[in-house]
Structures are given as C-alpha cells and as structure tokens.
Amino acid sequence: MNEILDSIKEIDKIISNMSRKRCILYFQSENRDIIEKAVNGSAALQYLLNLKPEDYGKSSGNLFRTLRRTKKCLNCTQYYKLSGGVGRLEPGKNETPLFFYLSDFQTFAKAEDRAHIIKAFLDMREEWELKNYSEEQGLYLLLSSPQCLIPDGFSDSIELIREKAITEHDLFFMLSQKVHEEEKARGRRFYTDEELHRYASQLAGLTEGQIESVFERLNGQFCTALDANLANYVKAEKKKEGEKDPTIRFLEIEKEPNVAGLGNYMAWLKDREESLRHPEQAARLGTPAPKGVLLCGVPGTGKTQMAKETAWRLQVNLIQFDIGRLSSKEYGSSEAKMDHFLRRVCANAPCVMLIDEIEKTFHEDKAGEGMHEVKLQQLSQLLDWMQNRKENVLTFITANNIARLPVELLRDGRISGRFFAFMPTHDDLMAILWSKLLPLAQNAVFGSTFCNIIKDAGLRLGHPETDDDISYQASPMDEVLDRIVRPVQGKSWVRTPFMTGANLESLIENTNLELLKAGKLEGCSASAYAEQFVACGQSQAFVPQGQSNMADIVNMWMWAHKSRYQEVSANTLLPFEAFQDGRFVEKELPRPGSEYDRYFQSKLKEEIEKAAERTRQQEDAWNRYQDRQSDDSSSGK
Q1: Which end of the chain has the least Cβ crowding within 10 Å, N or C?
Q2: Are 282 and 350 spatial neighbours (Cβ–Cβ below 8 Å)?
Q3: Is the peptide bond between 350 and the residue preceding it cis, with omega within 30 degrees of 0?
Q4: Would you state the pLDDT for residue 493?
Q5: pTM
C-alpha cells in the first residue's frame, strides 16, 4: 500500500537531499514496519546504506529480513548494554553490520535512556568506522516511533522523516482500485466516482494498518456492502484506536443532539457549512472554511452539546482535547504527545476538535506565578497549529470564565466566530423539558393523555416549520416555570430561581425520583406531574444557577458585551445592542411572553445596570487618583 501512497518516493526525496553528516534516520510513523518497508523499497536508502539487493537475495521479496538473518543489520536492543550509568553498543567480534535499527523508540520511556542509546551508537560508530569502514561509507542507525522523541543535543546527527499523511485523494485511489477489480469480475459498474469519493472520505483518519483491516473485511463485498458496512467497520476501527491510543478520545454522537436557543449560531454555521464540507472549493472562491469557534457562557447552558450539534450537522467525528492525556513528567514527553495528538487530529480531518473549558486547561498554577513552562509550551504548539494547519479541522472551544482566556487565542486566523451563551428563556427551557420527557412518553410510562401531549410537543419541536398545522393540547406543564418564580417576585431578599438547561435536567430527574418513590410515576397525569415538578422546583434542595451564581452571570454578560461577542440565541431577553451607556434602552428590549421571562428580564436588567454603575464609579475613582498623582508629581510633592 505504501507504493500507492508514494510514501517511498517521499522517503527517497528526503534521503537524497539530506546532509551526509547525519547518521541517524528517524522515521516518525504509526506503522511499526516502516523501517522494514523503507529498506525494502527505498532506492535512496539502499544506496546510502551501501546495500546491493542482488547480493542479498532480492528475489526472496524481503531484503530487510535477509539482512537480519545474515546479521548485516542489528537490532539495538539486542546489543545495547547499560553499565554504571553508561550505555554501550557491543556487536560480536565477527559481526560486520551495514546498519543498526531500533523500532518503537517510544518504549524507552525516560528521556535520559533515549539519550543514552543514541550516544552509545555515536560513540560506537566512531570506533567501528576506524576499524571497518572508509571515510566515504559510514555506519547508520534507523529509528522509528509514532511520536518525535529526539533528545536534546543530538538534532545535528538526526534526519527526521515523517511519513506522508494519507490524503482523501489517496483513499479514493485505493478504494477505487478495490471496487473496480470486483466490478470487472461482476461485469458491470456499481458506483460513480462521486459516490466513491463520499465513501473514501469515511476512511479519513485511519492508519495504513486500519485501512488494510477494513479492506480485508470488505474483501469480496466491495460492490455490495459499502453502504451497509463501511461506516460500521470504520467506526469499529476508530473505537479500537481510541482505546489503544491514550491521546485520542472520540466522543460518540448516536443521534441529533437537542440544544435549544441556537438561532444565531446555527445561522452562522449554515452560512459556512459548504465551506466546511468543501474547503478547497471555498478557498478558491475566497471564502475559506472557518478554523475555530469560541463559545463562552454560563455553566450548564449546553456549550458542550453545541459542539456535538456541530459535528452532527457536518457529519464528522468529534475529538476531545484532554490535557491530562497529553501530560507527562518526563522532560519533552508532553510536547511530543501534543505534537502526536495534533497530527492524529489532522489525519482524522474533516472533524471537529473540542477543547472544553479552556481556561481550566491553560491557567496559572498559582496566583501571580504564571503558567507552568510545559503547559506554556503546549499552548504555543496549539496556537501555532490553529494558525497554520491546512487540514479541515474546526476547533470548537468553550469557556466559562471569559476574563481568564489567553489573549493569544483570540487572534484572527485562529478563531472565526466568538459567541456568548446566556441563560435560556422560558421557551428554550420548555423545549428541553419536552425533549427529556419524550423518551418516557414513547415508552408509555405516563398516562395516555399526558403521553399524547408530550408526543405532540415533541413533534412540534422536531418540525418547527409546521407548527401551525400540528394541533397541541394545552397542559398544566405549560405554566410550571411561571409557578416556580411566582412566590419570589417582589422579594428582594430571595435569590432568583433562574435555570440553565443542566438545572432543568436535574429538576426533571428529581421529579421522576419523587414520583417513583411515591409509586405515582407510571400512569402519571399532566397535572400530577406538574404539581410534583413545581414542588421540587421550590424546594430548598433545588439550587438553580440564578440562585447560586447571580454575580457570575452578570459579570459574564458584562465581559461578553465589552468584548463584542455574538449572542448564540436569536431570542435573548437582554440583547447586547439594547445596552447603551450603562443602561438598557427599554424600547429596544423584546417583550417577554411569560411570567418567567418577565421576571428574568427585569431582575437581570436591574443587576446588570447596578454592576455597570459600580464599574463606572470604580473607573472614576481610579481616574481621580491618577489625576492627583499627576498633580503631586508636577508640583514636586
């Protein structure tokens, strides 16, 4: 398969142009057999190593194994000895190898061990060449590993050869060959080139070995089973990869996520969907695909679910960025893991990469001490990758604390859209409520009338464009949010029960549990469910976001307004454009349709205006202080 991918030609090109002072060839590749394939196939490498295939039985089909059998190439692990902290390579007296090799260099977990083995080779090379070789022909070491783990101080002696990435064009070529072989045997055409391109794109991100595994399972069925089985085979291989590779984590998206209140963001995504699906065509037209999205907002407002919604809409994989999987105590290992991870993400393009709560990932270790050096280096790697990568990867970043975001992250060319997710409205919360009750209604857990109400509501949510054609029976559930806020209105000492989607899901679970404990869940009516729902919502045990984090909610809104973020929802009750000179312009505020929304708008409006006034007073006090300092300085006091 390497010949199809032209990886041997790439190796030939690199070796032909490399400095002859470099005596170590480092193959960075996911393929454990890359050294064997390079020795067997690369004419430039054979010339460099002074190999003459005809002298070693090229007809046997495997030059590398012949050289191993005749001990013309030696495995470092069999001849490496560590004694007294000093490593040595000690081949036998009668052994005259043409080169040494070491696959799986990453198995030397400690950086000092990797440095020892390279130094041992270089030391042995000097002695060995004096005895056995002319100055024109030296001794070489071939290394391989999935990550680049070059110890400090040895880069001048090492030529890094990164295996050519498998492109979508390569995948189309490989799949076409297999399909056309079967089509020829069956005597007719089964797929158009457009269909094969679509199937080939599903193989993106697989390694050479994984592609071979998928093709083996499809052998004899390429013309009949691509549509039915290819996606499942690819998914199984990627799941295995995620289990084996600790740096990669694929997030499963079994069905369309249900996230309410995404009007502005979904419009933004729809405008760029074609660019994300066909980046080459978009670049040609001057409308390149966006590289990144930043979504800040109140915890529990569905930011992570929005990443899943994005991947589902684009029909691509969602990969989780997890700094814990990319950290190591070994010097240089964390940076190598980051490089490996970003290369694997690019191999999975097109895809969405989720960096959740980035301010917790890249943050100062202690107050005033700055970011740890390793994390600072990893952040630099990430930012450089976001700026310069060519692959079609949409970086989806979420944050809860806008003020703590690294300023370098917001540079143009890294982030194409910045959005703010505020507290959901009454209609947003009701949409979440119906979606969470729908599976129970489909399983006939509640009474038949209540089940029908829930199903009708779910149908309206799934087909908003046909709302007028779908009848909906009014229900006591329609007023539960209004009933929860009703007792606290006008009481300034009572904190407000404004909810996020996560709060609402918790409230639904508590309601179901209480009804189950009382033996009233199965066959429950809408009125009985509404009574228990309101009782749980007004209980001391329920602590919604508005009750516990009002100051944070206000500060986030203020920061997002100041930083000119776009609002995720098209129906926000407190739009940024209505806030002018520290006050809301009443005529520009939307008119709420429910008690919940009216109280929400009035309370949050009041709190935001108070916060704006405090900020203005602080700025005035600071300016007066600065003026006094300036006056004292000019008067010589």
Answers
A1: C
A2: no
A3: yes
A4: 53
A5: 0.71
CA nearest 143: which of 128, 122, 166? 122
| pLDDT tens, position by position, 162-204 | 877 677 778 888 888 888 888 888 888 888 888 888 888 778 7
The string of pLDDT tens digits covering residues 295-319 is 988 888 888 888 888 888 888 888 8
The residues, ordered by sequence, that sit 6+ positions from 140 with a Cβ below 8 Å of its Cβ are: 23, 24, 25, 48, 49, 99, 100
Q: Which amino acid is at 473?
A: Q
Looking at per-residue pLDDT, the higher value among 531 and 321 belongs to 531
User: b/e per residue, 554-579, with b = 16+ CB within 10 A?
Assistant: bbbbbbbbeeebebbbebbbbbbebb
Rounded Cα–Cα distance for residues 544 and 546 (Å): 6
Rounded CA-CA distance 236/251 in Å is 13
> Strand, helix or coil at 60?
helix
Least confident of 220-229, 438-447, 597-606: 220-229
Assigned token pair, 420: 């703010």
Give CA–CA dist 405/401, Å, rounded.
7
Structural contact between residues 317 and 205, judged by C-beta atoms closer than 8 angstroms: yes
Strand partners, 567: 420
Q: Within 13 Å of residue 76, how many CA atoms lie on the same side as its CB? A: 29
- Residue in 25, 11, 336, 17 with CA at minimum distance from that of residue 158: 25
Report the C-alpha gap between 356 and 514 in whole angstroms. 33
Name, in order, each residue with C-beta under 8 angstroms of 338's C-beta and a sequence gap of 6 or more: 326, 378, 381, 382
CA distance 105 to 183: 43
pLDDT tier for residue 5 given thresholds of 50, 70 and 90: very low
Q: Which residues contact 396 (CB under 8 A, 6 or more apart)?
A: 292, 293, 295, 306, 307, 310, 352, 353, 354, 355
Sheet holding 566-567, edge to edge: 250-251, 317-320, 351-355, 393-399, 292-297, 417-421, 566-567
Which letter does DSSP use for residue 226 in this model? I
Average pLDDT over residues 467-473: 58
- What CA dihedral angle connects 383, 386, 8 and 200, to 10 degrees? 150
Distance from C-alpha of 67 to C-alpha of 232, rounded to nearest angstrom: 41
| Residue 431 backbone dihedrals phi, psi, to 5 degrees | -65, -40
Torsion of CA 319, 325, 503, 583, to 10 degrees: -80
Token pair in block for residue 263: 């009007």
Q: Summarize pLDDT for 61-100 with one digit per residue, the tens.
A: 788 988 888 888 898 888 887 766 677 887 777 777 889 9
**Which residues is 580 bridged to in the sheet?**
583
Rounded CA separation 257/246 (Å) = 26
Token code pair at residue 65: 């194994």
Taken in order 452, 454, 458, 460, is the CA torsion positive or negative?
A: positive
Phi, psi of 172 (to 5 degrees): -60, -40
